[in-house]
Automatic annotation (TrEMBL):
Residues 69-79 have a biased composition (Basic and acidic residues). One of its GO terms (molecular function) is oxidoreductase activity. Residues 1-22 form the signal peptide. Belongs to the thioredoxin family. DsbA subfamily. The lineage of its organism: Bacteria, Candidatus Methylomirabilota, Candidatus Methylomirabilia, Candidatus Methylomirabilales, Candidatus Methylomirabilaceae. InterPro entries: Thioredoxin-like_fold (IPR012336), Thioredoxin-like_sf (IPR036249), Thioredoxin_domain (IPR013766). It comes from Candidatus Methylomirabilis limnetica. Residues 65-258 form the Thioredoxin domain. It comes from the Bacteria. This is Thiol:disulfide interchange protein. PANTHER family: DISULFIDE BOND FORMATION PROTEIN D, GLUTATHIONE S-TRANSFERASE KAPPA.
């Protein structure tokens, strides 16, 4: 927690002077007095615990609000800049695309199958695809977080399923997000089997270097774009950090349409 020098000075003054004694003193005088009599401050703190706690708490709240405002302003600026200079994820012949390949809008998600916010975002993406139909295509990329034990295995199994059937991989993707509490190798095997996937081959492919390299490439790309948590999105190159409500994405789409019209 950072506390401004002004607040700190005020706190010391409150602790070392009563209302009746309060007079104009210089900083040097106060410093000298405390150096010569350090116990005065200690006793003052003991006698005014609530006052000092309230001051520090208020300072912390003010600092937190200031930092949040700065972060929001920085994000707004980055978002505004990205309309002019959109971020460019790798999209090639090997990229799995859900929707029309020549769609007007491209939504790329960097996600973690075990992240509860990503499960919420899954429903947002589903609704966006429903609303915009052929005009929006969706691409899922991996950003499994290290503290989610099942996130990396789930990512590996998705890629393994995709080797056999890209279309069934999307079904696998949906089932995992809709059953987060069941994630684990046994559930991956059962789901793959129910989808008609060769489970034995899937197990081997999930541990293959090709699959691991693909996931690693997604993670590296996410980091380059400043995505450290999940979910992270790019909507025609405009970044969205977090599980924002659908209205946030709709606002970006409106701005993109207006920018193109101009």
């Amino acid at each position: 927690m950072r506390i401004s020098s002004a607040i700190a000075a005020t706190t010391i003054a409150i602790l070392t002077c009563t209302a009746a004694q309060a007079t104009e003193i210089t900083g040097d005088e106060l410093k000298k007095a405390l150096q010569e009599n350090p116990n005065v401050l200690i006793e003052a703190i003991k006698a005014n615990k609530k006052a000092i706690f309230d001051i520090i708490k208020q300072a912390g709240l003010e600092e937190q609000a200031s930092m949040q405002k700065e972060a929001e302003e920085a994000e707004r600026k980055a978002s505004a800049d990205s309309f002019k200079n959109p971020l460019k994820p790798v999209i090639d012949d090997k990229t799995r695309i859900r929707g029309e390949k020549d769609a007007k809008y491209t939504l790329v998600e960097y996600s973690d199958f075990q992240c509860p916010y990503c499960a919420s975002a899954h429903h947002t993406v589903k609704e966006l695809r429903k609303r915009h139909g052929k005009e929006l295509r969706f691409i899922y990329k991996h950003l499994p977080l290290p503290f989610h034990a099942q996130a990396m295995p789930a990512a590996q199994w998705l890629e393994a399923v995709a080797i056999q059937s890209p279309e069934k991989a999307w079904k696998f993707h949906d089932i995992l997000f809709e059953n987060q509490s069941k994630l684990g190798v046994d559930f991956f095997k059962k789901t793959a089997k129910d989808l008609g996937i060769d489970v034995e081959k899937c197990e081997k492919d999930a541990e293959s270097q090709a699959v691991k390299d693909r996931i690693a490439a997604d993670i590296e790309e996410a980091k380059q774009f400043g995505f450290n948590g999940t979910p992270g999105f790019l909507l025609n190159g405009v970044p969205v950090k977090g599980a924002y409500p659908i209205e946030h994405f709709e606002e970006i789409i409106k701005k993109l349409a207006a920018t193109k019209a101009n």
